[in-house]
Amino acid sequence: MQESQASGQPIQAKPGEQGSGAISQGFLETSNVKAVEEMIDMISTQRAYEMNSKVIQTADQMLQKLTNLR
Length: 70
Prior knowledge:
By secondary structure, this protein is an all-alpha fold. It has one helix and no strands. It is elongated, with a radius of gyration of 27 Å.
């Protein structure tokens, strides 16, 4: 292990001792990410971006038409 300014000093301990986690064979590590919620958030963000882009495009078109009227 190497120390960096962001990490601080490394702590070495055997599994299950000094507050470190235990190692178990035959088990899968679970994810802390809820994939469905992340997909919904991504779709919502994409739709909001599309709507904002359309508003800017419409405002730009209106300004072009106003400029052409003069």
